[in-house]
Design a protein that fits this description.
This protein is mostly helical. The chain has 8 helices and 2 strands. α1 (2-15) packs across α5 (93-115), α3 (60-68) crosses α7 and α4 (71-86) packs antiparallel against α5 (93-115). It is globular. The two termini are 32 Å apart.
Length: 171
Amino acid sequence: LLVGAAVYSFIHFLIYQPIFFYILAHEFTHAVFAVIAGAQVKKIKVSSQGGWVELTQSNFVIDLAPYFFPLYSFVIAVIYLLLNFYYDLEDYYFLFFFLLGASLAFHYLSNWETLKIEQPDMKLTGKIFGVIFISILNLIFLNIILMFAFLDYVNLETIWQNYFETYEMFF
């Protein structure tokens, strides 16, 4: 996981930033969350210069979804989970964790670069609320993706026990 994150970080800062793939995931994530919320996608445009999605309705979750939902990481985790259900992928753990680490680094670093400039999504929700909401949901989705990765070692009992111990530490 850390090797994948380090390799992507090196590529991101020193070689190439795949802006088109970020914009593609960004706009597609708006569209997916809009459909989940019951809206319709009228038009979608993606290019390396930017993109937009025209929806029948929107809300703050749809507006902020690309900043907290690591689409590529989620896709990698789901593909791995499905393939691992049918095949023994133990020999490919390194590749899976490498790709997961790289895709998470891509999500976080690309968002960091994007949020440095004025974003219409953040203007709609307010910067302070947006940053807090994005931060909390990034942690939640990171936990969900890592649960997929460690499905054999994680269950509801261990999750509850960890959260209960953390709660007791602070309160």
